[in-house]
């Protein structure tokens, strides 16, 4: 890779380049030592110390964490909430747009009518029961969302009518376009993604029954692991963290995020998502083991710089490694975990969204009241990375297979009543890249 040149009008020499690995390195400890030394050297060459740069981030995050804690103490809902009707009408109040920008997360009330969502929930039950899913179920196909017992909580089901109808609906397209527009998607003469076109990223379903006792899911990060420090594209995306211009780091800048490779792993997401999200298929109370986030988008800068401080062993990235979820821990990130904020009560048909870099997890619950049912549907706008993955999605859709990002379980291949190509509308065809490619979808 090439190092950026000095700013115009200065005589500073170029900063030293960073080593990069476009595939996961074979010797991880050696590569971590090498990239950490290079990152430190690069920051030092900018005229600032790692401690100074980290201090800037820490003060910013501290102020946000204090604000979240104060809002929580006042009993306020930390997550911004908007009505779907305002998104459709283009009348979301500026104050709520600003709150979304600050917190990086959002609840959309009435994204779908409650009756529609409840009907979809029943449809999914019918779909799985008619096709003998619970007899065929072989247990968790990965080690991250695994659940104990004969019935799963996460259903590796992708192609039900309910899911596809929700993914290709105009209402979802409007919400996704609203969310995508929060990002800076054009810079350096490049349009990094198309905010008005989603790539229809197929994901799973969660159905958690009443009475569940669950330990929850620890705080973690979704967008990558060691690749965040080690690929050329991510090093460019996080350039301001590594070249002494940390004040210019913008968590909403999509530059260099939509075309790079990702290291493989059980929880990898090949797509670029502006927001991860789910749509509620049941009512859920805020204290029944629901999603929480650390609603501070710039906390990503903290996570990226923290391993460079001298108290972290040279071959350790604060516990981040390939094939494991990116952990956020009391040991390395206690400040961030002070700012945990759970979602408010939601009703079936509401949707919940969080910036792709937001730390999140699921709270534990004992004897859960009511169901906890969701369809995972993110905002994954059309871009080179998502266009590449769309080819794999088309293939999985045509054959009823599990998509390439997920364990190869393929339960739906022989299910006759899955969603069919003839059921696609224009949004669905565009999302799969069918109209643009002119490909006939009729293979399944
Ligand atoms: Fe996650």
Automatic annotation (TrEMBL):
PANTHER family: DUF1479 DOMAIN PROTEIN (AFU_ORTHOLOGUE AFUA_5G09280) (PTHR30613:SF1), UNCHARACTERIZED PROTEIN YBIU-RELATED (PTHR30613). This is DUF1479 family protein. InterPro entries: Gig2-like, IPNS-like_sf. Residues 1-23, 417-444 are annotated as: Disordered. Gene3D superfamilies: B-lactam Antibiotic, Isopenicillin N Synthase, Chain.
């Amino acid at each position: 890779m090439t190092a950026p040149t000095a700013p115009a009008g200065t005589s500073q020499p170029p900063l030293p380049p960073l080593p990069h690995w476009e595939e996961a390195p074979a010797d991880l400890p050696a590569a971590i030592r090498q990239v950490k030394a290079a990152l430190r050297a690069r920051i030092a060459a900018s005229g600032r110390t790692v401690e100074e740069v980290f201090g800037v981030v820490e003060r910013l995050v501290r102020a946000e964490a204090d604000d979240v804690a104060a809002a929580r103490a006042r009993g306020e809902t930390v997550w911004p909430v908007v009505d779907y009707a305002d998104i459709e009408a283009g009348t979301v109040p500026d104050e709520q747009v600003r709150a979304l920008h600050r917190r990086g997360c959002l609840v959309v009330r009435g994204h779908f009518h409650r009756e529609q969502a409840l009907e979809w929930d029943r449809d999914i039950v019918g779909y799985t029961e008619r096709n003998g899913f619970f007899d065929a179920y072989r247990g968790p196909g990965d080690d991250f969302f695994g659940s104990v017992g004969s019935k799963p909580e996460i259903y590796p089901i992708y192609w039900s009518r309910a899911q596809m109808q929700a993914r290709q609906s105009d209402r979802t397209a409007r919400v996704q376009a609203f969310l995508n527009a929060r990002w800076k998607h054009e810079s350096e003469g490049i349009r990094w993604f198309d905010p008005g076109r989603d790539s229809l990223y197929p994901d799973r379903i969660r159905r958690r029954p009443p009475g569940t006792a669950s330990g929850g899911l620890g705080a973690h990060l979704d967008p990558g692991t060691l690749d965040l420090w080690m690929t050329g594209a991510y090093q460019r995306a996080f350039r301001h963290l590594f070249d002494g211009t940390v004040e210019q780091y913008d968590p909403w800048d999509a530059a260099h995020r939509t075309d790079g490779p990702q290291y493989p792993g059980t929880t990898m997401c090949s797509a670029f998502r502006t927001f991860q999200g789910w749509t509620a298929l049941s009512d859920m109370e805020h204290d029944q083991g629901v999603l929480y986030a650390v609603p501070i988008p710039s906390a990503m800068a903290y996570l990226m710089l923290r391993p460079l401080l001298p108290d972290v062993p040279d071959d350790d990235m604060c516990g981040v490694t390939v094939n494991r979820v990116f952990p956020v821990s009391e040991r390395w990130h206690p400040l961030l975990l002070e700012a945990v904020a759970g979602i408010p009560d939601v009703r079936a048909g509401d949707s919940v969204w969080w910036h792709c870099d937001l730390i999140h997890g699921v709270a534990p619950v004992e004897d859960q009241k009511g169901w906890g049912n969701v369809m995972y549907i993110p905002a994954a706008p059309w871009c080179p990375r998502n266009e590449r993955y769309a080819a794999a999605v088309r293939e999985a859709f045509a054959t009823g297979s599990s998509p390439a990002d997920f364990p190869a379980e393929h339960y739906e291949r022989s299910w006759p009543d899955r969603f069919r190509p003839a059921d696609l509308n224009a949004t669905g065809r565009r999302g799969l890249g069918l109209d643009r490619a002119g490909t006939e979808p009729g293979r399944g």
